[in-house]
């Protein structure tokens, strides 16, 4: 009987962990949930390509919160290649770039800067592989815009 109870507990714990990871991945796929409440998407750009789905490896998003005057950038991994170099960055007009880069499974960022009354640029990068197994880097830097 003890073995049965222990086995059931292990199975339930495993399901609990699976649900936890699933929730984290779902939350990470939504850039608004990464940046926080009050943000809305202003712009986005697809990066890279996933051969088996034909979709992007990642998407970089620029978001804005009108009540705080903050912009937020997050690069969300949408492909199946995880733990790769991914980056997100933001620059306020007249200022320097602030970037978050690393080998991430779900997203890079959020990078938040106050930009009320100024224009911003955003940046994102990811690595992906071609069908022949060659690594490629996709990088995007927006023009200066989204002035608020």
CA radius of gyration is: 19 Å
Number of strands: 8
Order of strands, main sheet, comes to 1-2-3-6
Written as H for each helix and E for each strand, in order along the chain, the element string is: HHEEEEEEEE
The overall pLDDT, averaged over residues, is: 82
Largest sheet data? 4 strands, antiparallel
Total helical elements = 2
Q: What is the CA–CA distance across the termini?
A: 66 Å
Strand content: 35-45%
Roughly what percent helix?
10-25%
Structural class: alpha+beta
Shape: elongated
Write the layout of secondary structure elements.
Blueprint lengths: L1 H27 L2 H5 L4 E8 L10 E8 L4 E8 L6 E9 L5 E7 L2 E8 L5 E10 L5 E7 L7
Antiparallel strand pairs: 1-2, 2-3, 3-6, 4-5, 4-7, 7-8
Protein architecture, described:
- With 148 residues, the chain is an alpha+beta fold.
- It is built from 2 helices and 8 strands; from the N terminus they run ααββββββββ.
- It has helices at residues 2-28, 31-35, and strands at residues 40-47, 58-65, 70-77, 84-92, 98-104, 107-114, 120-129, 135-141.
- The chain has a 4-stranded antiparallel sheet. Strands 5-4-7-8 form a 4-stranded antiparallel sheet, with no helix packed on it.
- A hairpin with a 5-residue loop joins strand 7 (120-129) and strand 8.
- The longest helix has 27 residues, at 2-28.
């Amino acid at each position: 009987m003890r073995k049965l109870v222990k086995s059931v507990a292990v199975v339930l714990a495993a399901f609990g962990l699976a649900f936890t990871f699933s929730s984290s991945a779902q939350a990470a796929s939504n850039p608004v949930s990464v940046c926080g409440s009050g943000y809305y998407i202003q712009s986005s750009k697809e990066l890279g390509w996933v051969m088996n789905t034909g979709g992007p490896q990642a998407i970089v998003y620029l978001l804005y919160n009108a009540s705080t005057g903050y912009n937020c950038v997050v690069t969300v991994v949408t492909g199946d290649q995880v733990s790769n170099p991914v980056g997100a960055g933001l620059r306020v007009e007249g200022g320097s770039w602030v970037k978050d880069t690393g080998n991430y499974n779900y997203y890079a960022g959020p990078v938040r800067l106050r930009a009320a009354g100024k224009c911003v640029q955003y940046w994102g990068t990811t690595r992906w592989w071609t069908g022949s197994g060659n690594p490629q880097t996709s990088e995007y830097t927006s023009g200066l815009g989204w002035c608020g």
